[in-house]
Every structure is written in structure tokens, then in C-alpha cells.
Amino acid sequence: MSKTWKQSLREVLDKPFKQKPWWFLTLLPLLFFISAFISFIAMWRRKCSYVKYPENCQMITICVGNILIGGTGKSPLVRRIAEIYLEKGYSVAIMSRGITNYNKQLYVHGTETNPELINHLSDENREHFEILKEKKLHKNLWILQYKKRSISFDFFFNKLKSENKEGKAIAILDDGLQHFSCPRLFNFCVWQPKLLSSSPLFSLPIGPYREGFGKQTFYSLLKEFDLRFWSRCLDEDKPIFTEDIKKILANFNLSLNTKDIIIQYKTKLLKINKITHILEHINSPCDLNNVLVFCGIAQPDAFFASVEKKIKCLSFKKIFLSDHANFSEATALLSKQQEILTDVIMTRKDYCRWMSLPEFHFFLKNKNIYILDLEINFDFDLYLHIKNSISEQKYA
Known about the structure:
With 396 residues, the chain is an alpha/beta fold. The protein has helices at residues 5-14, 22-26, 28-48, 74-87, 115-118, 123-134, 149-162, 193-198, 215-224, 238-251, 301-310, 327-334, 348-354, 358-364, 382-395; strands spanning 2-3, 60-65, 91-96, 106-109, 141-145, 169-174, 186-191, 227-234, 260-272, 279-282, 290-295, 315-320, 343-347, 368-377.
């Protein structure tokens, strides 16, 4: 499988100590010191930096994030929470910092049609925008993209106040658990059992975590957040997945309780109609020959495994890009593939990242394009839980 140097480095971080290469172990004293310093700064900020929630604010604010460097399935959860509230008639804002080349102040309403604005959304924000629009849930939606989330918060709050909608609105901070300048009522952390059980419990550069230094810190982090979401569970694997979570929590002297929510995944295959550019759901493609599967996500193994379950083909090639990869990175790896490719399968996130690029459409010109999309659900009434929690806070 072709991969970039960034992904090779990420694989080293994800591995248990015993499986790390010799050069990593020789640098361990230095890396240990750096990891301890990063963890101390993160712990200090978490203890001292939370901004108080405004007393007169009726808007619900939820922060969804993780302590892992990508790959926990945070974005589908953000979108699912948005769906729950949009279906109930709430005004919903998804607030994020964006990524390197897509982090300018950009506030896009769900009904926006100007491509100049839409094309400047980051890949994850564009994915939220497109999917919620397909589901006809965009009329009360805002995508607020700016590195200063507190300013986005003020914008949405003032907008609601001017329209007398503050009492029926929710703001979702996408990937904000390490950013404390924006007030929030709830903090939800997404965990991935496999990495939590195998990777070193240290922050970068020893392990794949943004904070934490040893078992006691992770015990505190597991306890701190309002809800623990456990991701990447296929419906049929739920009993085994649940047992794995119990074992992991037991390692930290914790037990499975009402704070633990298992996110269940369902995948579906979509084909892009080249005439209408509309994604059409198909049960199973029957004419796949030379297939290229590529993705630019933090943890691609689950994606590749899902593709292999969905299709049968003569030739199956995989390319693994960096998270949020530019298309130039893709073309560098694609040029190494000598076979004639007839079918291409990618993630929705990658398609949203590159869909406005002429060179991307040129590459797709003579190929059948498929997207392996996913939907998530959980056996938990999140709306009722939040409603009851707010009532308890109000009358405490």
C-alpha cells in the first residue's frame, strides 16, 4: 500500500513500545522529556483556562473532540448531533477552526449557493454542508469557520438574539476540547478502544495523543468529560466491542456506565452520476475491474476493510494519503500506478476536499467514481439527556 512519510510517522506513534523501531527507542529520553512538557502545559491549561458560560445565554453549546491526533470518528458524531437538533427545528451552528489553507473567517448559511464561499470551506465543513443539504436539513444550519471560535460564538449568539431564536438553538464546537476560549455547557470526548489499549499513554512525540502522561492522567481524562463516545463499531460487532471497552475501563479502575455511548457504524456505497453529479445509492457494483481505493484520513484501516467487504474486483490497489492531503500529494502517488484504472473508490471527505479542483475532475474523467459513505447511530437519547442535564443545572 502506497503511503506518505507523514502517515509512516503516524504509524510509528500508534504502535506499542515493543513494536517501535530502534531509532525511536534511542531517542526516547529526549522524546520523554518533550512529552512530559507538552502534557504539563495541557494539564495546566485544562485546569485554569475554561471560559465561564454566560448566565443570560439560553443557547446550548456542546464541544465534541478527542485527545487523539485524528482518527476517532469525531466528524460523523458532530454531524449526527446537528441532525438530531435540526430535525427538532433548532437553529444549529457547527463551529470549527478549519485547516491550514481553509481557516479564514467564513460564515456560511445552509442555503448558500455562491461557489466562491462554499469552495473555501475545509473538507470536513464542506462534508457537513453537503450531507445536511442532501438530507434537507440545511435551512436552519450555519457553518462557522474561524480559528477564533469565541468570535464565531458571539456572531451566532447575537444573530439568534436579533431573531428571538436563542431559546431553540445549539452551537457545536467541532474539535475544541483543547481550545478553551469559547464557553460550553458540555464536553464530549470520542475515544477509540483499539488505540487506547495498545498505544503508549503519553502525549506526542511518544504516543498519538495531544495530552496525557501516564495512566493516572488518562484516568482523569476518562472521568472528566460529560460523555465518553466509543467509535468505529460495526453493528454486528457490538457485543465484542462492548466487552473490549469494559476491559479497557477496568485497566483504569473504571466501569461501563451511563456516560459511555457506543457509536454504531453503517457503510453505504454511492456512485457519482457524471451527468447530474448526484450521488446515487447502489447495493453492489457488479462491473468493477481495476479498482483504486484512496483516502486522506488519519486511520484508514477501517475504511479499507469496509471497501473489501463491499466489492469484488480483479485488481485492488490502495493509496493512503495524509489527513487533509492536497491533491498534488495524491497525483504524486497516482503517477506510480501503471495499471489502467477503471474504478475509483474514495471517502466523502476526500471528494469534498477536491470537488472544486479542475485537475481532480480531469483525473476522474474516464473512470467510474464511488464513495464509501457512512452513517452513525447510538442507542441513547442525546436530546433528552441534554434537556434533563440543563434542568438539573438550572435548579441545582
